[in-house]
Amino acid sequence: MNITTQAVQIGLEWDTRTGSVSVPIYQTATFRHPGLGQSTGFDYSRSGNPTRQTLEDGIARLDGGARGFAYSSGMAAIANLLLLFSSGDHIVVTEDLYGGTCRLFDKVFNQYGLQFTYVDTSDIGKITAAIRPETKAVFVESLTNPLLKFADIPALAHVCRERNLLLIVDNTFLTPYLLKPLDLGADITIYSASKYLAGHNDTIAGLVVVKEPQLAERVYFQQNSAGAVLGPQDSWLVIRGIKTLGVRLDRQQENAFKLACWLKGHPRIARVHYPGLAEHPHHERMNDQARGYGAMIAFEVDNPALVEQILLKTRLISFAESLGGVESLMTFPEVQTHADIPPELRASLGINNVLLRFSVGIEDCDDLIEDLSQALES
Q: Is 211 a catalytic residue?
């Protein structure tokens, strides 16, 4: 069955009593037992809630995993996964990672003895060189934030299998609609569901999908123990959003390609990062492994003074953090999403004072081009 159809059908099988086509919001903390030693399958909403389970089962089906897990945010999802590891363990990580993830690694989990090495995870040689005897996992973004490098997941999976390492893939930018890392050999996928999956800039949520049942049981133990679960209202919002994932991403990708081509030809734009462009270094790799290129663009202007001008003059494109919603958003990574990365590292990665990150929405593309055009005028 096509993934678009699977997404639309999430929750339809749940309410057999009334036939509701929208899964109910089970706004309850606890559930009555039918008898001593008996359970309906639900006891307490931290351990399991029917609305949340519908979402968790749905994302597991879309991603091809044994089990899904829903958390109160994407960062909560990553933090919960790190509880799988012990003091002294080492993880190889994508170097141009979302700044909030770096903060979690370096300023929270470092103090508990976890060690992290940052490398260009689009380069297999650099990953293998970073692996140590105490390495337990490789953590990558399938499409990096904000420079849009694409990881070679089958090659990474081969390296991890040979060394008995977990391969964890943050697939937020591509979603299962465009890429299924578990089918390519990954063990765990992570999503900031606030982004494309929910798709309307109206909720905060995180999702995890685990390939194998035994590992899934370990993840469930940590989820239930730590308790950073997604509430039923937000679970319902994410379910609702996922139902339109395919049509939204189709439109967003179409817009992104047109905008990337337009930006590339503009005299005030020095460089465009978009994997849908043939000159992108990982364009062919994405052709082989993904169903599309996503709807994120990063671009560099020719003068730092233009950054503030664009952010303040655009009328349709909002100067706001986050991404993946139906509305177009733009951020300045150096001082916003990646401010927690040390300045010298930001500079070496190319996250500089002329780089803007553009989350392309579903507006009419000609209107977005006109908005950018007037914002770029002196």
A: no
Q: Which residue in the list 26, 71, 98, 196 is annotated as catalytic?
A: 98
Q: Which is the catalytic residue, given 149, 180, 195, 251?
A: 195
* CATH for 3-242, options being 3.40.50.2300, 3.40.640.10, 1.20.140.150, 2.40.50.100: 3.40.640.10
Please indicate whether residue 346 is annotated as part of the active site.
no
The CATH class of 245-376 is: alpha beta
Q: In what order do the strands lie in the sheet with 90-94?
A: 67-71, 206-210, 188-192, 166-170, 135-141, 90-94, 115-119
For the chain, residues classed under CATH 3.90.1150.10 are 245-376
For residues 182 and 169, what is the distance between their CA atoms, to the nearest angstrom? 9
Instruction: Please give the backbone phi and psi of residue 216, each rounded to the nearest 5 degrees, phi first.
Output: -60, -35
Residues forming CATH 3.40.640.10 domain(s) in the chain: 3-242
Catalytic residue among 63, 96, 120, 170: 170
46 belongs to the catalytic site: yes
> Over the chain (378 residues), what is each successive 10-residue block's mean pLDDT?
94 81 94 92 95 98 98 98 98 90 94 96 93 98 94 96 98 98 98 98 98 98 97 98 98 98 97 97 96 97 95 96 97 78 71 93 98 93
Q: How many residues does the chain have?
A: 378
